[in-house]
Amino acid sequence: MTATAHPHRTSDYKPAVAWFAYLGSAWVFVLVALGAFTTSIGAGMAFLDWPLSNGSVNPAGWLTEIDKFAEHSHRLSASVMSAVTIILALVLWRTESRAWLRKLALLAVALVLFQALVGGLRVLLDHLHVAMVDTSVGRLFAMLHACLAQLFACTLIAIACSLSRGWITRTTPVSCGVRRAGAICCALIFCQLAIAAVMRHSFAGMAIPTFPASAPDGSWLPPAWNFRVGIHFAHRCMAAVLSVALVWFALKIWRDRAATLLLRCGAAVLVNLLALQVLLGAWIIWSQRSAAMTTGHVLVGAATLVTTFGLTWLAHRDVVEAHSVK
User: Is there a contact between 175 and 312 (Cβ–Cβ < 8 Å)?
Assistant: First the structure.
């Protein structure tokens, strides 16, 4: 399509559209927090039907019973998220001249709708058991649901960053090393979040009940192994790898003379999120899996991912724009 065919499409900074994207990105964290709390208290099956809850959009007891409140609030917040994403895509399709950004908005719509479907299948197929992995089909979909949530969050962050004034008005000529480090860290975090989703939905959060050691006698390796112990230990090992990788990424940004103040501040935020995430992970064990600590751990994990991804996306700004020019 040419600019003449669509005179309303521009790549200029649009404050109203940008702020709508920012608010949509912020709402993702409401959705993640409610989803994490629902899982933490075991309320994922508070209602056995979908998309309605006990056949209603206002089911009895959802404001007074904590399990019903958690699950129904998560469903309502997901509906809001779907509406926000669709509206944002429609606005961008009408006003945005960058074809790659319009396609990214359509990808966000596809992801949020697929995420809703996966969430529904988690409920509707929970009665089916998979003997090979000793879990239900519904829980397998719950694991996928958790991973898709992170991918969707990153997509919205990419859209929000691409609509910002800074993205449109200035270049970000950071080194290839910074971009490469960011991409590696994003891949590692996605891997960690996938491990965490399997661990959480396999009831393995307390499979190793001591921290930082893996046994009461101070041993670093668990004294006995099974699937739950293995996935829990893998989560701890990946956390150690990520601690090194994220600090490395932050140092790469700080040492790059071309890094903007935003990138440098974002790197500082990232290191602090990492420290908070490790502390929350430890406190989950020390508190015998407190729902508040577990929810906080999931929420900070999501914040760590989107911060890492946001920094990486900003670092790729010139590359993205260069490839979009025909």
Answer: no
CA pair distance 85, 79, nearest whole angstrom: 10
Domain count, the chain: 2
Mean pLDDT across the chain, nearest whole number?
Answer: 93
**Structural domain range at position 104:** 9-168
101-108 CB contacts, 8 Å cutoff, 24+ apart: 101/159, 101/162, 101/163, 104/155, 104/158, 104/159, 104/162, 105/159, 107/155, 108/152, 108/155, 108/156, 108/159
**Residue 81: inside a domain:** yes
Identify whether the C-beta of residue 253 lies closer than 8 Å to the C-beta of residue 263: yes
pTM assigned to the model: 0.93
**By the 8 A CB rule, do 12 and 168 touch?**
yes
Residues 159, 220 share a domain: no
80 and 205 belong to one structural domain: no
- Which of these, 176, 161, 151, lies nearest to 266 by C-alpha position? 161
Cβ proximity of 68 and 59 under 8 Å: yes
Contact assessment for residue 207 and residue 198, using Cβ atoms and an 8 Å cutoff: no
Longest CA pairwise span in the chain (Å): 73
Looking at the chain, the whole-number percentage of residues with pLDDT higher than 70 is 97
Helices (H), the chain: 15-40, 66-95, 99-124, 137-163, 165-169, 176-201, 227-255, 261-286, 291-315, 317-324
Letter for the amino acid at 98? R
